[in-house]
Write a structure and sequence with these properties.
The protein has 26 helices and five strands. With about 650 residues, the protein is mainly alpha-helical. The two termini are about 20 Å apart.
């Protein structure tokens, strides 16, 4: 903080703390922030004017384009002017992108040129509404489509650009510039969530933009010394990562609790974000009515993109304090999660037109895209032995995708846990500068509990399910909650069974820490494919078929991860041998090798039986053999993981706090 005060003083005196004159990063680029401040003031004016909608809201709520043409024609001009001011400001900053890039030794600042061009193009599309006849329905639909295109282009490029202020600066000025600009569009989108908070959200959004643009001016006018010298993330960038994660999921609560919770047979259920109904419309022909407003989901996804872009790059001092050897989110994984976020923004924007011809095709991605990004982030954290942050993300992301619905508590409670863990992580990034909780002890516990739960479900310890072919009627105790109708709890129960295997796969990746393994990474990432399959439950015509579908998912996931897990177990056995524990090491290696052999034999026998026309008894025999193999292997793996936890020191890792 003292450094920040010193740099602020330097801005006004144009001198360094040593009393010497300095050259700012770029004087003219700083004027770009001034245009942003004027844009924010214009936004406030449009909110007050009775003949105009608040500038910029239609980019995230493109259905307002109809109101632009029929009720508020002045809005075409005010929103175009708003975007024009932002574009000019971005263009002035883009002039200095090469200079900033040379300081950072990166070409990323050049994205400001793309952002400026895109915002100018969006202004052109918006002003085009001024010449449209509001009585021609075809032209109205085309204008709504143009507004949606302008919307997702602007907000995505804006998020990808403004994160640079925080990432590039060692000062809190950069942190404020990035966070305030980065959460302008999410807060503006929340203005459409409820009429109760409409005014507060609008004013709050423009206030964020104004503060962010003032900080942007200061970012450019500060001495060059506030720009980071190394590729690793600065302490302020790590703190911003913690803050943005907390704010993202806090704002995302509106999407979780606003409309998604419905009551079915007296039981609260959670409807996926992609759930909607249709009705006739005089302009759209067919309109969409979502349980959860898609613009509210977009607010969450925009925050998610900003958070992902701030994923910390660790230095040597960071990895020496925590038991990992590389960044948690980096390279292809990081950019793939950002890509999923962009897909989510595109789908929510077109869904926000409320026009079925535009929104129906992409509606499914409103749930899948952000959930998949959360799953991959959770897997990466769990694989780095941080199950505190990782598992809540994984658990929640899967239930976000369950169709046709899930019991509400299985989404809302984990979401609250995510907010709490993100708040703790925010404190951790500030106090110790760590961006994770490395608790190897909890990795062993999570893996063991998930494995035991999976075995218990396989053996029918929690009760039996619908009258389907064994073992489906053993795995899924859809009468687990006696006071809840079967059709209400069935999708949740079936997902829980799949979830035990998912959590086991995600947690076991943490055993590779200290000896990085590509096999372990594959286990975590391939599990996402099967997490997607929980959406298939809705396609089954009744509970029995849902159970068979879920049973197939479990079998496929276990079969595909079978060789990978045993390969990891062989690796663990070798590491234990190197520690000098020959008995456990050899036992683990023999058990893994025997598992591979028996697995191959069972596979051959299964192919032989199903090569003809097997009888029901033969089918039951094959399934019984498969269950015996799966349970046996799981017990041996459980012993392996416990032994590895003891011999590799994982049970004593964690819960050690030092600054």
């Amino acid at each position: 903080m003292a450094e920040t005060v010193s740099t602020l003083k330097s801005i006004f005196t144009q001198t360094t703390p040593q009393g010497e004159r300095y050259e700012p990063v770029d004087r003219i680029a700083g004027l770009g922030g001034l245009f942003g401040v004027i844009a924010a003031l214009l936004g406030v004016v449009t909110f007050i004017l009775p003949d105009s909608l608040p500038a910029g809201t239609a980019l995230e709520l493109p259905f307002q384009a109809v109101q632009y043409l029929q009720d508020y024609p002045l809005s075409c001009y005010t929103t175009a002017a708003f975007l024009g001011l932002l574009a000019v400001g971005m263009l002035l900053q883009a002039r200095a992108s090469k200079k900033l890039g040379s300081l950072l030794e990166s070409g990323y600042p050049s994205i400001m040129w793309i952002a400026a061009i895109v915002i100018f193009y969006a202004a052109y599309l918006v002003i085009g509404g001024a010449s449209i006849d509001p009585n021609v329905i075809v032209l109205i639909r085309a204008y709504v489509s143009d507004m949606a295109l302008a919307g997702w282009l602007v907000v995505v490029l804006w998020q990808l650009t403004v994160v640079m202020y925080t990432d590039a600066s060692k000062s809190y000025v950069g942190l404020v510039a990035g966070l305030c600009n980065g959460f302008f569009w999410p807060v503006l989108a929340l203005s459409g969530a409820s009429s109760t908070f409409y005014g507060a959200a609008i004013i709050g959004a423009y206030a964020l933009l104004m503060i962010g643009q003032v900080a942007t001016m200061m970012f450019w006018w500060m001495p060059k010394e506030h720009i980071r010298e190394f590729a690793r993330s600065t302490d302020t960038a790590k703190f911003a990562f913690g803050i943005s994660g907390f704010l993202t999921f806090l704002l995302g609560s509106a999407a979780v609790f606003d409309g998604a919770i419905q009551v079915l047979h007296g039981v609260p259920v959670w409807m996926p974000w992609s759930s909607y109904e249709t009705y006739p419309h005089h302009i759209y022909v067919t309109a969409m009515d979502f349980y959860t407003p898609p613009w509210v989901v977009q607010a969450f996804i925009l925050g998610l993109i900003f958070w992902l872009m701030l994923a910390p790059r660790l230095g040597s001092s960071d990895v020496s304090d925590i038991p990992i050897h590389e960044d948690i989110l980096k390279g292809g994984l990081k950019w793939f999660t950002v890509f999923l976020g962009i897909v989510g923004v595109i789908s929510t924007t077109y869904a926000s037109t409320l026009m079925a011809s535009m929104g129906e095709t992409l509606a499914v991605f409103i749930s899948i895209a952000p959930a998949a990004a959360m799953f991959l982030v959770g897997t990466a954290y769990a694989g780095a032995n941080d199950v505190i942050v990782g598992l809540p993300l994984v658990f929640t992301s899967v239930f976000l995708m369950v169709t046709p619905y899930s019991m509400a508590g299985y989404v809302t409670i984990p979401w609250i846990i995510i907010i709490i863990t993100q708040a703790l992580l925010m404190v951790e990034t500030k106090i110790r500068g760590h961006t994770m909780f490395a608790q190897t002890f909890l990795t062993v516990i999570a893996t063991g509990v998930a494995s035991l739960a999976f075995i218990a479900f396989m053996l029918g310890s929690f009760g039996r399910g619908p009258p389907a072919m064994w073992p489906a009627n053993v795995w899924f105790p859809v009468h687990l909650f006696p006071d809840i109708p079967v059709e209400v709890q069935a999708p949740t129960i079936m997902t829980i069974v799949v979830m035990t295997l998912i959590i086991r796969n995600v947690s076991v990746v943490g055993y590779s820490t200290g000896a990085p393994s590509e096999t372990a990474k594959i286990i975590g990432n391939i599990t996402l494919v099967f997490a997607f399959m929980v959406t298939m439950f809705a396609g089954a015509k009744d509970i029995t078929h849902q159970a068979l579908t879920a049973a197939s998912v479990v079998f496929m996931l276990y079969t595909i991860s079978f060789v990978l897990v045993l390969s990891l177990n062989l690796n663990l056995g070798s590491r234990i041998l190197k520690q000098g524990h020959e008995l456990e090491g050899n036992l683990i290696r023999v058990a893994a090798a025997a598992g591979l052999v028996f697995g191959a034999l069972v596979a051959l026998y299964t192919l032989y039986i199903f090569s003809g026309f097997p009888s029901p008894i033969e089918i039951a025999g094959v399934i019984t053999l498969l269950i015996t193999l799966v349970v046996g292997l799981e017990i041996l793996s459980l012993i392996t993981w416990l032994s590895a936890g003891i011999r590799l020191g994982m049970l004593t890792g964690g819960f050690k706090f030092k600054r």
